[in-house]
Amino acid sequence: MASGGLQGAVKGRSAPGQRGRKLGLAMVVLAVLSLICGPFFVDALDRSAPEVRDGAVSYAAYGPLTAPVALKGEWRATWLSAPGGTPVDFRIASPGEWKGVETPAGPVPMGAAVSYRLHVGGLEPGRYTLFVPKIYAGQRVYADGRLLSRSGTFGLTPETTRYLGRVQEVVIDVAGRDLDLRLDMAAFHHRENGMPEPPVFGLSEPMSYWILLDWIRSLLLIGSLLLLACLASVIFVFRPDDRVAMYLALGSMSLLPLAATLSHDNLLAIAMPGVPFGAMISLQILATTAALSAALAYANELFPRESPRWPYRILQGLNGARFLVFAGLAVTGHVILLSEASAAVYLFRIVTLVYILGVVIWATVRRRDGAVLFLIGLGAMLASIIYSDLTINAGVPRLLSLNLLPAGMLMLLFTQLVLLAERWSLAIGSEARTNDDLRRLLDVNIAITSEMRLEALLAKMVQVASTVTQADRSSLFLFDEKAGELWSVVAEGLEERPIRFPCDQGLAGWVFTHGELVNLSDAYADPRFNKAIDEDTGYHTTSLLTVPVITRDGRRLGVMQAMNSQEHPGFDAADEARMAAFAAQAAVAIDNARLFADVAAERNYNESILRSMSTGVVTLDRDVRSAKLNPAAADILEIGPDRLEGADVRAWLQASNPRILAEIDAVAASGRPRSLLDADVRTASGETISANLSIVPLVGELGGLVILVEDISEEKRMESAMRRFMSQKVVDQILEHDGDDLLFGVSCRASVLFADIRNFTALAERLQPRETVDMLNEVFADLVEAVSASDGVLDKFLGDAVMAVYGAPLPAPRDPQNAVESAVNMMAMVAALNERRRDRGREELRLGVGIATGDVVAGTIGSLKRMDYTVIGDSVNLAARLQQLTKVYQVGVIICEHTAAALDGTMPLRELDTLRVRGRRRSEKVFQVLTGDPAARSPALADYGRGRELLAGRRWKEAVAAFEAAVAADPDDRPSILLLERARALARRPPPSDWDGVWGLADADAA
């Protein structure tokens, strides 16, 4: 247990009944110990004996000293080290200090040599014993002028004085009735001076008995401290996380020097006679300071909830600072200053003890285990201190004949012994129960891995949860995400009646939505509890423990409940921990089951994908010994999937496809994928087919290879060619018809489009090769998109030009419109591209597009290993010529008259000219597409059209005037400029009368 005292040992507060029984047994143990040790604490001193007055005491009226008496009262004294060397007489109290006592020579200082004198009268003849308590001074004891004993070295200066710090038991034979006692003391090395305790005197026999009792009391205290220290140390050694035992052991060991010093005789001086007095005092003070820190930590660790954090830290910090100061004084040899500093901080010691007392009282009020025992021991010690102070120093009559101060201290030690034994016993019991819980958890863990049925596993977990928490019954509710409800997957006592309710209703709903554990000792007193469930089931819930079932990644699966604790009035912290553990196990089991289902579904899904793929997939192990094939691979290779089961694949490949096996080994060795295009593959039937192979290493621990097999037989080759140049819509249309007739030669009416980048050669000369390729790819990406968007077929790339076909092999009425729409989209895309190029500081691009519509021959042309789909015919040549004319007329899109007619006025056009292109006898009217062209807004269009009509009517001068007006309206309109030049040329040299108005392409180029 890392913290929490008894709470840590038993993981919570005990039930009231158990707490009462334990306290009763502890009190019995304390009572027995007190009865055994009580006789040793009887006060053998006769407190009614006469007191010393004016340095004399008479026992004539008192009688024989059959009981020891304390020689307290007013003694006569002589200041032997007075200034000037002359002794000064004065009176002094015993017990009491001489520091500050007024004398004719002034007040006596702390460091001085003083002789105490006492005349004892009325003694019966006999042998007496004088007991002089421990006094930090050099001492001599005289009786009737004879030196009988000494302790240390008596001197009149600090240099001549040496301390021993031992008691003196002086035997004195008294023959007459009077006795003169003299006690010389020299105290210079410690703040203590005078007589802290009065000497004890009496006949030797009763004195021997009194001395024996005092020794027994001292040894009982020291023995108890040693026993506490040893027992706590052993517990800490075997349970290193038990900090309570550690602090108790440290505190007990730290108190041993003080207890040894304050015993009947100075055991520390007896055990270490050679240790200097300063070192002995330093050890005592430093150990006592450390003991205070240990006691503070002990109380805090025992009752952490009752010990406020900041006051505790402040007290520990102050005591730590005090220890450092004391250690500095001890190291530097300032023993007197060290003793004075230790006495000066008595208020701090009192405050710390009061704080500890407050913590214990508060723990007692809150019924913490062990608090009552602690309070009894601490209270007994404090009461004994107060009682002793009142009876000794305040003159209050003694009510008991016991020496309560050591008895109180021993009672405190006894209570800590009982507490330690109780904690150890409870810890062992807790360990035993924990082991039982761990065994049950282990059973559940084994069940999680072995039980395939989730319902049976959850039922077992709920049953075990009821057992370990000692609940009457338990239940498990899971969240139904679709219904938004919690439902009882397991409910003990209600196996045939599943319960469903909204996931935010009742206590279970609150725990589920908030994700927090709730422990109720009285369920009906909590407004969150849904009493309707009890009313419906006929069950009465008293105590209720509800725990959320949450996965490691924070997903809430449901709640787990334990009802009606059979051992306690309610469930304790240990039950909470156990229930939380089972809830975590339930989350793991449910998550594993769902994960298994997801994995199975994903596996089935992947297998479905493999079965649905037209590409063959072959997986090989690391050694190429075993293989798995999908159905497509089995069909392509003409081999059944079960034929390779257990077969040596390497041997089969070596015999049938050694080249492919060499490539497989190369990939396995290098880890780099390879592609074999148009490879010859021999199938299981012995036939050789063409296929594209991709050999790729498998990623993961298992390793291996994956081979993708693409069949490129004539039919596949044809389909591949189509998919590269046709949109999916066109390919689907072709596949729905007789593909052989459509793809291997068909005559159809189609529209052909040529698009060319203007001045590409000059532009490419100023670019790096990589920049040229990047520019073409950027332009072609847009042009291909424009073709596909209008159901066109990309025929080929021609350097810096693109050829596309609309209507081959399956014509449609909208083919001309689609071609023109593609051209318009191309112009818009190039305009957008130029904006991006301007932002990058690049030159703008210009595009020219020519479109012709007519009959073409379409089909796949090429060899068996390389086939392309294309069209040939007069319309192809015309479209190419029209694209070239865009450079002459400096317009964007030129179309033939058949294309213009098919548009049927859906797009604005300008009739540019009537031409006869090279290679054709028939003339052709050509038109400029104005959609998206800035020329559509040109003011020259009307004059241009009028000029064309005047030329056709051979009215040359009027035609010149019309074209001059067009050029004046739009000086940048290149067609108007060309036709003006043509009109002027015809006006200068009119053509023959049979001229048909057709201008040759060569003439157009010249013009």
Structure overview:
- The strands form five sheets. Strands 23, 24, 25, 26, 27, 28, 29, 30 and 31 form a nine-stranded mixed β-sheet that branches. Strands 1, 3, 4, 5, 7, 8 and 10 form a seven-stranded mixed β-sheet that branches. A six-stranded antiparallel β-sheet has the order 14-13-12-17-16-15, with helices on both faces.
- 48% of the residues lie in helices and 21% in strands.
- The N terminus and C terminus are likely disordered.
- It has 30 helices and 31 strands.
- β26 and β27 form a beta hairpin.
- By secondary structure, the chain is α+β, with helices and mostly antiparallel strands.
- α3 runs parallel beside α11, α6 runs parallel beside α9 and α11 packs antiparallel against α12.
- It is elongated and about 185 Å long.
The proportion of strand residues reads: 15-25%
Rg over C-alpha atoms, rounded to the nearest angstrom: 57 Å
Q: What count of helical segments does DSSP give?
A: 30
Biggest sheet record: 9 strands, mixed
In the predicted model, the low-confidence regions spanning at least 5 consecutive residues are 1-15, 1002-1007
Taking the alpha carbons of the first and last residues, their distance comes to: 105 Å
Overall structural class, as computed from helix and strand content, comes to: alpha+beta
Kindly report the average pLDDT value.
81
Overall geometric form: elongated
Number of strands: 31
Question: Main attributes?
Answer:
disordered C terminus, 1007 residues, seven-stranded mixed beta sheet, 30 helices, 31 strands, disordered N terminus, nine-stranded mixed beta sheet, elongated, alpha+beta, 48% helix
